[in-house]
Design brief:
This protein is α/β, with parallel strands linked by helices. It is built from eight helices and 17 strands. The protein has two domains: about 240 residues, QueA-like (3-Layer(aba) Sandwich), CATH 3.40.1780.10; about 80 residues, QueA-like (Thrombin, subunit H, Beta Barrel). It has a nine-stranded mixed β-sheet, covered by helices on one side. It has a six-stranded antiparallel beta barrel with strand order 5-6-7-10-9-8. Strand 1 and strand 2 form a beta hairpin. About 45% of the residues are buried.
Length: about 350
């Protein structure tokens, strides 16, 4: 029997889309979902819901200023979103390109008022392979714009440069084109309170791609081809997870990116234990799916028909998530990247 994508659709009033961040990171609300039981809380209540010895796992990726505007050599306007830098030495990247007509092989684009330029040298499905003149990351830092989500329907500001990054992002891991948004609620104070309570903290890396915003377009979601993203579970984090599990403690994934990284690593476990994993993941989690690592999940409210909504439905139960979303809309929660948070307990 097919699993219908339409089963993961819902109507959201436009005014509930959080297009700007709150004044402080931890000021958001928190909806605790435990089966069909819902609790309306504040994000600052999170430490009271976790226990000594639990392990909180965060994604330490950093968002690139990946969006560029310019002109083709024919004079037409062009927008470039750097999805992934594939060759740092030769300044080559796979990019999304928006223009009235598709770029042709060998065609050059001038970007950032002429400060940058790139030549189209290939295709990889829907991505254009561009070779830039100078080191890409350095130029993006100078001339690029923060790639805020399209549903914000606005231009990125200086505020986004700070607030669309986590407080713990690793400068050496600047490769995402979207933030791991569940982590945006954490500030230094909240992290310190958790540490003081005895909650352990560990990190993984998943470089988020633009595909995270793409709705599933197939009628049967099992026909959907998941986009690939680079993920890394360090051995140190794997050891912490194995130890916590052995001691009966909970693994709390902060965000779907962490959940996907941990569950990908679970598929490659050795003798029942997690070990270091490094590579691309295309794991597509939807109901029914049995989670092997994650016990609790902190997440935001997700787009209709998105793979992320399917993942949280697999985790907490489809009916429970539908119930929670109806409740959240009725209670005027703020949705999507700058929106409020949820704490989900795994459905037995």
């Amino acid at each position: 029997m097919p699993i219908l994508t339409s089963d993961f659709d819902y109507d959201l009033p436009d005014e509930l889309i959080a297009r700007y961040p709150l004044a402080t990171r931890s000021a958001s609300r928190l909806l605790h979902v435990k089966g069909d039981k819902l609790s309306d809380l504040c994000f600052t209540d999170l430490p009271s819901l976790l226990h000594q010895g639990d392990l909180l796992v965060l994604n330490d990726t950093k968002v690139m200023k990946a969006r560029l505007f310019g002109k083709k050599d024919t004079g037409g306007a062009v927008e470039v979103l750097v999805e992934r830098i594939t060759d740092h030495e030769r300044y080559i990247a796979a990019c999304h390109v928006r223009s009235s007509r598709a770029l042709k092989m060998g065609q050059t684009v001038s970007l950032a008022d002429g400060a940058m330029s790139a030549t189209m040298c290939g295709r990889d499905e829907n991505l254009f392979i561009l070779q830039f003149v100078n080191p890409i990351l350095a130029d993006l830092d100078k001339y690029g714009q923060m790639p805020i989500p399209p549903y914000f329907e606005r231009t990125a500001t200086k505020t986004d440069d700070e607030r669309y990054q986590t407080v713990f992002c690793d400068d050496a891991k600047q490769a995402s084109v979207a933030a791991p948004t569940a982590s945006l609620h954490f500030d230094d104070k909240t992290l310190q309170i958790l540490k003081d309570k005895g909650v352990d903290i560990a990190f993984v890396t998943l470089h988020v791609g633009a595909g995270t915003f793409a709705p599933v377009k197939t009628d049967d979601l099992t026909d959907h081809v998941m986009h690939a993203e680079y993920a890394h579970l360090p051995q140190q984090t794997a050891d912490k997870i194995n130890a916590a599990k052995a001691n009966g403690k909970k693994i709390i994934a902060v965000g779907t990116t962490v959940a996907r990284t941990l569950e990908t690593a679970h598929l490659h476990r050795v003798n029942g234990l997690l070990t270091e994993f490094r590579g691309d993941t295309q794991i597509f989690i939807y109901p029914p799916y049995e989670f092997g690592v994650v016990d609790r999940l902190i997440t935001n409210f997700h787009l209709p028909k998105s793979t992320l909504l399917m993942l949280v439905s697999a985790f907490a139960g489809t009916d429970n998530i539908k119930h929670a979303y109806v409740h959240a809309i009725g209670q005027q929660y703020r949705f999507f990247s700058y929106g409020d948070a949820m704490l989900l307990d795994k459905c037995p």
